[in-house]
Amino acid sequence: MRYNLLASSLKLLNSTKNHNLLLVNVRSLTGAAQTNDAVATTTRPPPAESRNPGEEQRSLHIAVIGVPNVGKSTFINNTVNHRVCPTSAKVHTTRQSNTAIYTIGQTQLVFYDTPGLVTQHEIRRHHLDQNFKSAYRHAIQHADIIAVVHDASNAWTRKELHPTVLDTLKAYSNLPSFLVLNKIDALKSKRLLLDLIKTLTNDTLTVGKREVQAKSAPAKEIRINKRESSWSHFSDVFLVSALTGNGLQEMQNYLVGQAKPRDWKYPSDMHTDSSPEALIVESVRARLLDYLPQEIPYNLKCEIEYYSVEKNVVYTSVQVQCPTTRIERLICGEGNGKLRQITERVTSDLVEMFGQAVSLTISTVSKGKKTAA
């Protein structure tokens, strides 16, 4: 099985290298929201190595915030054109701030992927660390601008910003912020998008007539509407689909234009400051969230057992600690079939992340008994 998985990862790596990533671009919106009927192939930006040595370096640090499951990690991965942040279909996949780095020409964009903004009740329910709530504050304190990602596809919540988001914007009102309406591919109505922008910004922004730079106001001057469901101080709004890449190029161009003249914090070929071991563990945990029902994956603990790179191949092993033998059997499945599926899926994620062949072993343990796939 170990040999078969390595052979599969080598095959996947070759197919990835030969695949041209196509991003779908939302055309400029001038007074009326555009749907994603038209698909255009975006060209990849020139590599950082082609920059003019005589030009000064510029950078912008962006804190990406929002409630759980609005697509923040997918949004960042597709914006930087590299898999950095593990993703899953369940809430609370991101449990600590991750840093994604994208360098284009003389400009470096640094994105801080933050955990979903939560209440104390949600922390208890999902067995989250108490430091969970402070992670986004740490990210914002190192940021130049705040990106608020909002799920436009959720009919129940799309018409108002969550109170935790509003509280955060008020607490850091000295920083400029912009709104990212995500998952617009699920909407067909132009009118609905326009009404949504009007509602969430308290009718203070007109799409296509954007301010060049946010004007920060003192905290005492901040006012939101009576229902506290909108924010009147967004400097810009973008309609995107993080899953397809729709609208991300326009937003990326905007961020490059906002960059400040200063030395880069990271080398031009660096995509994240997270260690490979941490990325591997988080990738395993993310897929456990996808494959296991209800609250079960939140009670599991993943630890790296082995990590080595030999002849451009990543060899690694992760142990999943289960609270009971029943849960261990659920993870493994009949004949370890489910555990093999999870291992194959994580291997695919890691090949994309590292750009190298990967040989991965995931083992489970409960009450001293160990199973591996």
Layout of helices and strands:
Elements: H1 2-17, E1 58-65, H2 72-80, E2 98-104, E3 107-113, H3 120-125, H4 132-141, E4 145-151, H5 163-171, E5 177-182, H6 190-200, E6 234-239, H7 248-258, E7 260-261, H8 276-291, E8 301-310, E9 313-321, H9 325-332, H10 337-354, E10 357-366, E11 369-372
Parallel strand pairs: 1-3, 1-4, 4-5, 5-6, 9-10
Antiparallel strand pairs: 1-7, 2-3, 8-9, 10-11
Helix pairs in contact: 1-10, 8-10
What do these coordinates show?
Residues 34-43 have a biased composition (Polar residues). Residues 113-116 are annotated as: G3. Belongs to the TRAFAC class TrmE-Era-EngA-EngB-Septin-like GTPase superfamily. Era GTPase family. Residues 92-96 are annotated as: G2. One of its GO terms (biological process) is ribosomal small subunit assembly. With 373 residues, this protein is of the alpha/beta class. Helices cover 31% and strands 20% of the residues. Mean pLDDT is 79; it is low at 18-50 and 208-225. Helix 1 (2-17) packs parallel to helix 10 (337-354). Strands 1, 2, 3, 4, 5, 6 and 7 form a 7-stranded mixed β-sheet that branches. The chain has helices spanning 2-17, 72-80, 120-125, 132-141, 163-171, 190-200, 248-258, 276-291, 325-332, 337-354; strands at residues 58-65, 98-104, 107-113, 145-151, 177-182, 234-239, 260-261, 301-310, 313-321, 357-366, 369-372. The chain is globular, with a radius of gyration of 22 Å. The protein has 2 domains: 58-207 and 228-261, P-loop containing nucleotide triphosphate hydrolases (Rossmann fold, 3-Layer(aba) Sandwich); 276-366, 2-Layer Sandwich (GMP Synthetase, Chain A, domain 3), CATH 3.30.300.
